[in-house]
Structures are given as C-alpha cells and as structure tokens.
C-alpha cells in the first residue's frame, strides 16, 4: 500500500476521533438504547442513571427544570439523546420509552 494513502487514512481516523471525542473513546453514542435505573443526585444537581452493555453505568445530568414522566420505571428500556456537558459529563437532551421489541412506544 502506498505510504501517502496510509498517511491520509491515519489522519482521517485521527480527525474522526477528535471530532467524536470522548463519545468514541467511551463507547457512548449521542443516541443509544439503555436501561433506565433510576434518579440520583441532589435537588440542585439532579441526575438519572442508565445502563447498557457497551457503556456500563452512565450518570446523566437533567437540564434545569426538566422532569421525567411519572410512569418511567426502573428496568425500563429507553432511548436517550445526549449532549456533551462540562468536565466530561453528559446532559440529557431527550429520553423516550421503548416497548419490549425495542421500538419507540407512544408517549
């Protein structure tokens, strides 16, 4: 293989890792399926905890004034959309319940 082509592939890979940042490194995706494990944190810094096989336990900050629907249950499958927060934290952008088959349920 030509060294120039190999060098360009390495640069492209490096650029992708830099753009994706911690997302690629930690196995997290901005939109992924998790199991909802509950609410934790304090009144000033509310968090939810979700789990999946790839990422393990992930604490996610709730935006100011954001509440989860009352019918969310521990162990329920959810699809979350995340935003990168300060100091390596994740902030919840959107969360949707999934039915047993993994497709979104009507909220």
Q: Any idea what the CATH superfamily of the domain at 29-97 is called?
A: Nucleic acid-binding proteins
| Annotation, overall tally of beta strands | 5
What's the main sheet like? 5 strands, antiparallel
Highest CATH level, the class of the domain at 29-97: Mainly Beta
CATH topology of the domain at 29-97: OB fold (Dihydrolipoamide Acetyltransferase, E2P)
Helix percentage range:
10-25%
Distance between the termini: 53 Å
What structural class is derived from the secondary structure elements? alpha+beta
The CATH architecture category of the domain at 29-97 equals: Beta Barrel
How big a fraction of the residues is strand?
A: 35-45%
**Helix and strand string, N-terminal first?**
HHEEEEE
User: How many separate helices?
Assistant: 2
Strand order of the largest sheet: 3-2-1-4-5
